[in-house]
Design brief:
13 helices; 5 domains; 634 residues; alpha+beta
């Protein structure tokens, strides 16, 4: 059940809470809104700035963000939820039965909104599987998010944040060498056992996907630079074995992936410097080694004694092996001078080249596979890139989710940000044309086209990325029965979708996660039926108002959700009021076993979601005797 000591953060229900709240001592400036899908988070995020002089900071955060509004926080979450003194959290909850109904109302989309049913989770007759309703601690799903036991409990290695490096192992989330050099495979539940096998057999490493580890033979080309980006939503993780064995004076290339370098710096508590953008993808001589995982490279402006330090996982040794495939950097000054000096430039040099060796440090001997005579040319290592780092027409690229990063790169390329570009953020696109000025013309499957800066995209290796990607052990959403079997949510396995609801609500009443005095829990039913009282309760709880509140706080009429949401989720509020006030809709289409599972949720009764509570929602305990305001579009 819910800790009774924390019920004072619950607004309106059971009616006494708003009167007992103690406002924060510090003036509030920002708000975080959290809640499960379909709990009025979009609507409330739009309404808060209308009445209060605060900004809503996290409504646009995507899956994987530390502030994703649907995320379930725990005391061991990494990164943890940081709530500053000037920040207030509003956590929305919803009747679990109606929440299940919301999840299954878009069957044509084949989705339960980030909740993935695990294959074989429910029986064919729609009955809940054995054990349904038993308390089960969330367990990690292998290859999606790793939770590794240690002496202190759990360290959650989230794919969007942590790059784990040791003297012998380096971990690369979202990267793989697909289908190449697999020598064996084994279960990935025990990563230490997999690593021991790799070390014993002398393999190069292994990739993990869908709970299986695919072990790779040791090949000269199998190093960081040979790994391919598989898409930011891919759960594949590559574990590369063997220290880089760098020495002072070696040449290394810094990763060309801006988002990867930025995340690595932020994970280590370092500040991103815009001068790093000019270093991406370039070759540098190693100046210093501070232990097995930190490498000193020349700083671009001579600061910090002329040395900047980088995690070894961001660097790939420029030790091209015979047989590797490379591309020339056409913008490199030495390459341009070489090509301009030839009366009849060999265009084959601008295509794929094969390495013959490195006759001396920093110099690479290459030839064109199309040249039958095998003419060998020598180029500086800094002018050559592995083929995965070169983007051309017909390639697939991933555009980062950050509008700020894309907008900045556009401005540097002399282009303006356009609102339509939001549709391409975080998606994989087809490259139609490589333009001058560092721009790509890209398209989505619906044929719409955009101009995107080359500097911010990541090339996607063919065979790694599936546009409709989901873990292979998960099934397509088809029927409500799947929600009452094992599911995967945000990389964590739960006994069923009701377990997701329980974990979500439990976190909102955990004072170690959501601090007392800076948190309010609001039922979405109260937002729908008692909007005015919710606004007044939030003001009483400490949110500074823009001006004196009107006699009745009226909500906006237009839909709160953008047009990208399914139409079935964008009903007007009069329709929603009628729907949620009808008890017949609560358990419609659910079997007796499913209803029994929902009635077992102890926290539901505490929140006023008992068997006969539907009729109470329009007039909750403590409601003012005022005419209901007109709602719409929620």
């Amino acid at each position: 059940g819910l800790p009774l000591s924390s019920l004072d953060r619950l607004l309106l229900w059971p009616g006494r809470a708003a009167e007992e709240r103690s406002p924060p001592r510090t003036e509030l400036k920002r708000v975080y809104i959290f809640g499960p899908h379909h709990s009025c988070t979009n609507a409330l995020a739009r309404e808060i700035p209308r009445f209060f002089s605060v900004s809503v900071e996290n409504n646009d955060c995507q899956l994987g963000s530390p502030l994703w509004k649907h995320r379930i926080f725990t005391t061991y979450s990494l990164p943890s939820l940081e709530v500053e003194e000037d920040t207030f959290c509003i956590c929305l909850v919803k009747d679990p039965a109606f929440w299940i109904q919301s999840l299954k109302r878009d069957p044509a989309g084949g989705t339960f909104y980030d909740i993935l049913p695990i294959e074989g989770g429910a029986s064919h007759d729609g009955e809940a599987p054995d054990g349904c309703g038993e308390e089960e601690e969330p367990e990690p799903a292998a290859a999606v998010r790793f939770v590794q036991a240690d002496e202190d409990g759990y360290d959650e290695w989230a794919h969007y944040k942590h790059w784990e490096h040791s003297p012998a192992w380096a971990t690369y989330p979202h990267f793989d060498v697909p289908g190449r050099a697999d020598v064996e495979q084994m279960d990935a539940q025990d990563l230490d056992a997999v690593k021991r096998r790799v070390e014993k057999m002398g393999y190069a490493g292994f990739s993990v996907l869908d709970g299986r580890a695919y072990l790779k033979a040791r090949r000269p080309w199998l190093h960081e630079g040979a790994l391919g980006f598989c898409g930011a939503d891919s759960s594949v993780v590559f574990h590369l074995y063997g220290p880089q064995e760098l020495q002072v004076g070696d040449f290394v290339r810094l990763s060309s992936h801006a988002f990867t370098v930025r995340e690595a710096f932020e994970a280590g508590g370092e500040v991103w410097d815009e001068q790093l953008s000019d270093m991406l993808g370039k070759v540098f001589r190693v100046l210093e080694l501070t232990g097995p995982t930190i490498v000193g490279l020349p700083s671009p402006d001579g600061s910090q004694g002329g040395v900047w330090y980088f995690p070894v996982g961001l660097l790939s040794p420029v030790r091209f092996e015979a047989g590797e495939l490379l591309r020339l950097d056409k913008e490199d000054p030495e390459v341009r001078e070489f090509l301009s000096s030839r009366e009849d430039p060999d265009r084959r040099l601008l295509k794929t080249l094969r390495v013959h060796g490195m006759p001396e440090p920093g110099t690479v001997a290459v030839s064109s596979p199309a040249d039958r005579e095998g003419t060998i040319f020598r180029f500086p290592a800094s002018a050559l890139h592995r083929e995965m780092e070169v983007v051309e027409a017909d390639d697939f690229v991933w555009v980062p989710r950050s509008a700020e990063a894309v907008g900045k790169a556009l401005r540097e390329a002399g282009r303006d940000w356009e609102e339509e570009l939001e549709e391409v953020l975080g998606r994989v696109c087809l490259v139609l044309e490589v333009l001058e000025g560092g721009l790509l013309k890209v398209a989505l499957p619906d044929k719409r086209e955009w101009l995107i800066p080359t500097a911010v995209v990541c090339k996607v290796r063919e065979g790694c990325y599936r546009p409709d990607w989901q873990p292979r052990f998960c099934a397509r959403a088809r029927e409500a029965a799947q929600l009452f079997g094992p599911v995967l949510f945000d990389g964590v396995r739960y006994a069923d979708a009701v377990g997701v609801w329980e974990a979500t609500v439990r976190s909102y009443f955990d004072a170690e996660v959501f601090p007392t005095g800076h948190t309010a829990v609001v039922r979405s039913e109260d937002v729908l039926f008692s909007f005015d009282q919710v606004i007044r309760a939030l003001a009483h709880g400490g949110l500074p108002t823009l001006r004196s509140l009107p006699q009745v706080c009226m909500p906006l009429q237009a839909p709160a959700k953008a047009r990208g949401h399914p139409m079935c989720t964008r009903s007007g509020l009069p329709e929603l009021q009628g729907y949620y006030a009808d008890p017949a809709n609560r358990y419609a289409g659910l079997t007796d076993a499913m209803v029994k599972r929902l009635l077992q949720v102890e926290a539901a009764a505490t929140l006023g979601y008992g068997p006969e509570r539907v009729a109470s929602w329009p007039e909750p305990t403590g409601a003012a005797e005022e005419e209901e305001p007109a709602f719409g579009g929620w």
